[in-house]
Specification:
The complex is a heterodimer of chains A (about 500) and B (about 100).
Chain A (H helix, E strand, L loop, with lengths): L3 H9 L5 H19 L2 E4 L1 H17 L9 E5 L26 H8 L3 E6 L19 E2 L2 E5 L5 H8 L5 E6 L5 H7 L2 E4 L19 E6 L2 H11 L34 E5 L9 H16 L3 E5 L7 H16 L18 H12 L2 H13 L5 H22 L5 E5 L15 H5 L6 H6 L3 E8 L5 E8 L4 H14 L8 H18 L2
Parallel strand pairs in A: 2-3, 2-6, 9-10, 9-11
Antiparallel strand pairs in A: 1-3, 4-5, 6-8, 7-8, 7-12, 11-13, 12-13
Chain B lengths: L4 H11 L5 H18 L34 H5 L5 E2 L2 E2 L7
Helix pairs in contact in B: 1-2
The chains are: A alpha/beta (about 500), B mainly alpha (about 100).
Chain lengths: ~500, ~100
C-alpha cells in the first residue's frame, strides 16, 4: 500500500518525481479499466502538465504535503476544461466551465488530477450499477459491487490506482463504497466543505469528502478540502483545524482513555450479517484495549431514517434536476413536436431509470395535496432523529456500528429492486439527515474475503476526534493495510500493458 | 398509497419525463414498493414538531450587494445545444 504520507516523503526527498508517480498511476488506471471500470474520463495530458508543475514547485522547495500526489475526483465534481458527466447520458459530453471549490482547493494544494471516477448516475445509488458507463467492479471480487455512489473513487483507492480520491456523500455515498472496498471514507460535517461546483442531488444533504487508505491520508485531504466559500451559502466560516496535526500527538499505550463510545441497540439488531457483526465486535474490543469505554445508547427514531431520506432526497432531487431540460447544456432529444415534447423526450432519453424514479417520487411528495403528508412529515421526523443524536452525544463522544448491514453483494442481485437497494443505507443516512460527520474504516473481512467497514459517527465539527479514533485503531491493527487480490492481478496486467505499450 | 397508471401519467407530465406505455406498469409497481417503505412515516406522531429543513441551525449570511462575477455568457453558451445571437434557442412556443 502506498499512502499520501509515504509518497509525500519520497517526493520531498527527491527519491521520485511527480511525473514518475503520475505516469505509473496513469498506467495502472488505464490497464485496470477493463477489469474494474473505476474511471469515466482519464486526463493524461492534464495530469502530466500538473505533475511537471508540481516537480518545479518541489525543486523550488515550496511544495506542501499534497504537492505532486496523483488523485482523482468523483465525476459529480466540476473540473474546469474536463468532461464532467455525473455518469449520466444527460451530461455525457458536458465540459465543466469552472472548478468545484474542493477541486480548486486540491489543485492549489498541488495534487495531480489523473481523471474522473465512475459513480451512480447523479450520485443516486448504493452500488455504482446505476452508471451510464457500466458498473465499477470491486477489486476484492470483480463479480461484486464496489458500493456507491462514489464506487469508482473507492475502487481507485482500494486497487492502488491512486492513493486518494474525492467523493460525495448524500446518504452514505462515501462511507458505503469505502466499507465495501476495504478503505477509509470520511463524510465531514455539512457546511465544512463547500458544495460549489458539486452538481446538486439533494442540497440539504450533499457533502464532499475524502476516500483514502487510512485516517492520516483522509486528514491530508480534509486539510485541503475544508474551508469557507462565499459561493456556497451553506458553507460555514469556522476557525481552521489542522487534522494532520491532530493525529501527531503521542498519547501512550492507552490513547483512548476517557473516550466514550456509544453503541445504539438499533445498529446491532437482526438485520446485520453475522460476520459483519462479529468484525464490528472485534473492533470494539480493540478500541476498549486502547482505553475507550462503551456505553449502550438508544436512537429510537433512527429506524425511520431510510423512509425520511427517501422523501427528502428525491424531493430535493426533483427540484435540482429540473435544470436538465435540453436548453442550456447537456443532452437534447433529436426529434420532438414542440417545447414541452422536447423537455419530456430529452429527460426520458437523458436520465436512467433510478434517476427518473427519484424525480417521480420527489414530484409526488411535493405535489399539491401531498406536501404535508410526506415532505413536511419527513422534515418533522428528521428533527426527531437529530434530537436522538443530540441526546446520545450527552452520554458518549462517538457512536460506533457497522457501516453496512452486509459486505459487498453480487452485481445484479439488487439491481431490479429499489427498496432492497435503499435498505443498504440503513446505517448511513442518519448522519446526512443530522449533518453530523461520520467515517467508515476497514475492520475485517468475511470468510469469502470481502471487506467489512466500521462506522464511527460524532457530533458536528468533531472530524478531528473521528480521525483520532480511526488513527489509533489503525496503529494497532492492519485491516487498512490489506490489499485486494485484484491489485496484484492489476500489477501483472500493468506489466503486460506496459510491455505492449513500449513495443515499437 | 397505491398508484394507478393514471397517477404515473400525471407524475410523468408534472416531471416532464416521457414514460412509454410498456414501461409504465413497471414504474407503477416500483413506486408502490417505494411508498410502502415511505408510508411507515404516517404512523409517527409529529404533532407540534418543528420541521427540520437544514442540518445546521444558522441563518443564511448576506453579502454586500456588489457585482462579483464577470460576463461568462459566451463561454457558458459553448455548452448549449442551440444558440444564436447570444440567445438560447428553443422550439417555437407562439405561432
Amino acid at each position: 500500500m502506498t499512502t499520501i504520507g509515504a509518497l509525500s516523503a519520497a517526493l520531498r526527498a527527491r527519491k521520485v518525481s511527480s511525473v514518475e508517480l503520475t505516469r505509473e498511476a496513469l498506467s495502472r488506471v488505464k490497464s485496470a479499466q477493463r477489469t474494474l471500470n473505476a474511471f469515466i474520463t482519464i486526463d493524461e495530458q492534464g495530469a502530466l502538465d500538473a505533475a511537471r508543475a508540481a516537480d518545479a514547485a518541489l525543486a523550488r522547495g515550496d511544495g506542501g504535503a499534497l504537492t505532486g500526489i496523483p488523485i482523482a475526483h468523483k465525476d459529480v465534481l466540476m473540473t474546469a476544461g474536463l468532461r464532467t458527466t455525473c455518469a449520466s447520458r444527460m451530461l455525457e459530453r458536458f465540459v465543466a466551465p469552472y472548478d468545484a471549490h474542493v477541486v480548486a482547493r486540491l489543485r492549489e494544494a498541488g495534487t495531480v488530477l489523473v481523471g474522473k471516477t465512475n459513480m451512480d448516475e447523479f450520485a443516486m445509488g448504493s452500488s455504482t450499477e446505476n452508471s451510464h458507463f457500466g458498473p465499477a467492479r470491486n477489486p476484492w471480487n470483480t463479480e461484486c459491487v464496489a458500493g456507491g455512489s462514489s464506487g469508482g473513487s473507492a475502487v481507485a483507492v482500494a486497487a492502488g490506482l491512486v492513493p486518494a480520491c474525492t467523493g460525495t456523500d448524500t446518504g452514505g455515498s462515501i462511507r458505503q463504497p469505502a466499507a465495501l472496498s476495504g478503505i477509509c471514507g470520511l463524510k465531514p460535517t455539512y457546511g465544512l466543505c463547500s458544495r460549489y461546483g458539486l452538481i446538486a442531488f439533494a442540497s440539504s444533504l450533499d457533502t464532499p469528502g475524502p476516500l483514502a487508505h487510512d485516517a492520516l491520508d483522509c486528514a491530508f485531504m480534509l486539510n485541503a478540502m475544508a474551508g469557507h466559500d462565499a459561493r456556497d451559502s451553506t458553507s460555514l466560516a469556522r476557525p481552521a483545524v489542522d487534522y494532520v496535526q491532530a493525529l501527531r500527538a503521542n498519547a501512550g499505550a492507552r490513547p483512548l482513555v476517557g473516550l466514550r463510545i456509544g453503541l445504539p441497540s438499533e445498529y446491532f439488531g437482526d438485520g446485520v450479517d453475522g460476520e459483519v457483526a462479529a468484525a464490528v465486535d472485534a473492533a470494539l474490543a480493540e478500541l476498549r484495549k486502547l482505553g475507550a469505554v462503551t456505553v449502550d445508547i438508544a436512537l429510537p427514531a433512527v429506524k425511520y431514517s431510510v423512509p425520511v431520506y427517501y422523501v427528502i432526497a428525491p424531493a430535493e432531487a426533483s427540484s435540482n434536476l429540473s435544470r436538465f431540460d435540453g436548453v442550456r447544456y447537456g443532452h437534447r432529444a433529436e426529434r420532438y413536436a414542440d417545447l414541452a415534447d422536447m423537455y419530456k423526450k430529452t429527460r426520458a432519453e437523458g436520465f436512467g431509470p433510478e434517476v427518473k424514479r427519484r424525480i417521480l417520487v420527489g414530484t409526488y411528495v411535493l405535489s399539491h395535496g401531498y406536501y404535508d403528508a410526506y415532505y413536511l412529515k419527513a422534515q418533522q421526523v428528521r428533527r426527531l432523529i437529530a434530537d436522538d443524536f443530540q441526546r446520545a452525544y450527552g452520554r458518549c463522544d462517538v457512536i460506533a456500528g457497522p457501516t453496512t448491514p452486509t459486505a459487498a453483494f453480487c452485481i445484479g442481485d439488487k439491481a431490479d429492486d429499489p427498496v432492497q437497494m435503499y435498505l443498504n443505507d440503513i446505517f448511513t443516512v442518519a448522519a446526512n439527515l443530522t449533518g453530523m460527520p461520520a467515517m467508515s474504516i476497514p475492520c475485517g473481512t468475511t470468510t469469502g474475503g470481502l471487506p467489512i467497514g466500521l462506522q464511527l459517527q460524532a457530533n458536528h465539527f468533531a472530524e478531528a476526534r473521528l480521525l483520532q479514533v480511526a488513527h489509533r485503531f489503525q496503529q494497532v491493527t492492519d485491516w487498512h493495510l490489506r490489499a485486494p487480490p485484484a491489485r496484484s492481478k492489476t500489477t501483472v496486467a500493468d506489466s503486460h500493458e506496459a510491455a505492449r505499450a513500449t513495443q515499437p | 398509497m397505491s398508484f394507478s397508471l393514471d397517477d404515473v401519467a400525471r407524475l410523468a407530465r408534472l416531471a416532464r419525463i416521457d414514460i412509454d406505455a410498456d414501461a409504465a406498469n413497471d414504474v407503477r409497481a416500483k413506486l408502490d414498493a417505494i411508498f410502502a417503505l415511505i408510508d411507515a412515516l404516517q404512523a409517527i406522531d409529529t404533532a407540534g414538531i418543528e420541521p427540520m429543513a437544514h442540518a445546521q441551525n444558522v441563518t443564511l449570511p448576506l453579502r454586500e450587494d456588489i457585482v462579483t462575477e464577470g460576463d461568462e455568457r459566451a463561454r457558458y453558451q459553448q455548452q448549449a445545444p442551440a444558440v444564436a445571437a447570444g440567445l438560447y434557442l428553443v422550439p417555437r412556443v407562439i405561432e
